[in-house]
Design goal:
Blueprint (H helix, E strand, L loop, with lengths): L2 H19 L10 H18 L2 H16 L5 H18 L4 H7 L3 H11 L4 H50 L4 H55 L4 H9 L14 H8 L2 E2 L6 E2 L3 H7 L1
Antiparallel strand pairs: 1-2
Helix pairs in contact: 2-7, 2-8, 3-7, 3-8, 4-8, 4-9, 4-11, 5-6, 6-8, 7-8
Amino acid sequence: MERKAFFGLLLCILVFAAGFVSSGNVAAYFNVAGALVVLGGGMGAAIASFRMERIGHVCRVVRTVYRAKVKDPAEIVEVLVDLSVKSRIRGLHTLAEDEKETSIMFLRRALGLVVDNYSRAQIEDILHTEMFFFKQRRDESERVLRVMAEICPAIGLAGSVVGLIGMLSGVDDTAVVLATIPIALTSTLYGVLIANFILLPMSARVRENTDHELLLQRIITEGIKAIQGEFNPRVLEVKLKSFLTPSAREGQLVSLSRIKERFRLVEREEGLEPVMASPEELGAAL
């Protein structure tokens, strides 16, 4: 999670907790029996509803969406324009070097298909298939979280019924009533908090991350198809920037100074000295 988002979340949690503290008796909100009813019942219902492999996959997805740094679409556009210029200067086969360096698995796979000389139709079909099943897997993870969010309040209500039954069974004993009322009330509270403060936000975060990743994958797919078709980099830049918000379209990626800075130094095979691309190569690339 980004640092700003983390501190914002921490601040909101503190404000939320302050509402409980201001009521006076903080200890009244903590009840082990109520927590065990909700956690045990919720996890049991989840295990009964889904395969353990699916639950483990959901845990990994949640960890990934909160810990992994998300690429900005403008960065992907810049990378693809650079690759387009490089392929026009030195040929498509040189993209194999970038295939090893890129940190984006989808882009790495797409570059591998281009370098391996797959046809345009084959590349488009493979990438669209990967996008489709990526969305399917993420939708399933989101569904698991939403089902668990629906279960928890109901389990909390069941805990409240357990507390009420205990209270009614000892209605003549004040000690029994005082011991069972916290279970009845806190169980519902825990169920609502777990569902609406943990599981539903996780589900929404998975959905947001999925939509963002799909946008990046669409940009990469269009960029790779254009690179294989040897589109002019300026045309490619204009096309890919249509995916961006208007505020992110400022500036020109394809410029002579930028290309010189990017491609000036190229190691010779002997590794003795650098060499700069010729003006003719740069002119042809632009």
